[in-house]
Amino acid sequence: DRLMKIAAGETPLPMREGACIAVHVVGIPPIHDATSIDVVEALAEGHVMPLPFGRQSSANQLCYNLDGCATFVGNGDPLTPAYAQLFRTGAVEGVLSLDIDENNVPYLHGPTFEPQTIAAVRNYIDLLVDLQMGPPFAVFVSFAGMKGCKVRYAAPGGGFYQAGPLRDDTIALPEVVLIDASTDVRASLAPVFSAIWNAFGLRRGPH
Question: What local confidence, expressed as pLDDT, does residue 32 receive?
Answer without folding.
Answer: 47
